[in-house]
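Report of the visiting student (M.T.), summer placement. My assignment was to run the structure pipeline on a short list of targets and document each run. The first record concerns Carbohydrate kinase FGGY N-terminal domain-containing protein.
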Amino acid sequence: MSTGRDGRAPVVCGVDIGSTNTKVVAVDPAGLVVARARRATPRQAAHPTVDARRLFDAIEDMIVEVCADVYAVHAVCVAGVGEDGMLVDEELAPLTPALAWFDPRRADVFAELAPRLADHTGLCTDDDPARTLVGWRWAMDQPGAARARAWLSLTDYAPAAWTGRAFLSDTLAARTAAWDGRDRSWIDARVRLGLGRVDLLPPVVHAGAILGELRSGRLESAGVLAGHVAVVAGGHDHPIGGWGVDLVSPGAVLDSMGTAEVVVAQAPRPGIAHRRDLDVAPGIRSTGTTVLSVQELARNVEWATASSPELATHLRALIAGDLDPDVHIYEAAFIPGERGGAAPRFTADAPTSPLSRASAVLGGLARIGLAAQRTVAACLPGNPAIYAAGGWSRSPGWVQAKREVTGAEVIVVPEPQVTGTAAALLAATAVDWAPDPGLAMGLEARASA
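After the run finished, the structure tokens were exported:
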């Protein structure tokens, strides 16, 4: 694709809205990541809610930054946090802040709702305080809720604002605990418990669908838009990242290691049912199923490091690869806490030395990661390759521990922003570009290099 008349080279942009940071990645037609930007996801000082307009402004700032006076955007796709969202008015202006999926206030709301949540076989995930349903109930009690005309997810807000179209990405509908993934329909009784009204929910669209043309006076004035810019539906960050890796290695499993360890893949079989250790969502650009298994990671490490300064020092050294673990890495002396479960603990016969306890923590976490990998791999044909991404994948000692304890080879994705890059690839695919996903993910060199 040639450079435009204004001298700007063509790119697509992928946006990744994370719990801590929001990133924008620009990818050229060949698949090379040519620019990137990062900002802290803007949260209020007193509690972790997000003002969607502040986030929107930050995203536009970053698009201007990555394009500078060099690039022009042809398409954009946003992926991000799965459960956060807000009520909006007829003009799609936010009426309520977005309650974070990890906000402790969710626990009391969930406790009030839980006894009234009837089981439903088509759910895509378990009921717990993080689900969107809980955020709905909280939002309806906030000032301004009476003027609501729709609910938008935080991840979908910028695409909705750019196109003037209210919608919900299907991989985000799967996180609500009120959507039937088998027939793509809302579970009326659950929606009414949360929002009170089913008509507040916008149409659910497939990831990768073109929503419309991007309209932004600010981006137009900055000269970073290339004619008719397509806005492409993204959705939940982990499925989008897994899809990007699947492009590189069809049938692969992505082990994303950050605040949680999320193991995800694109399974070719449709209609896979969720169970306690397996969340599901629609397949991306396929008739199959996105399968995810989520394990606690950061919380377990925080608990262990808080238990002893000496243990904390040894564990940090092990994770960094500056210290070798002892034999207790192979023994079950540490019982990790699980999502929604009991707190982590050491067994009664656990060793007392800091190195041995730190080794046991490392081994215990590696084993629950292996269990998640096996759960997801069981949904796939053959013997899938395992790729790793996320902040923990940059820690040599952690990756080596996983290899030693599990016996599985792990391929670390060099691209540090897998979700943002995958979102850019989804945007590119929607507008019929054919970028090289291996180049985008840093797994192969550019041909001309």
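The mean pLDDT is 94. The two ends are 19 Å apart (CA to CA). I thank the supervising group for their guidance throughout the placement.
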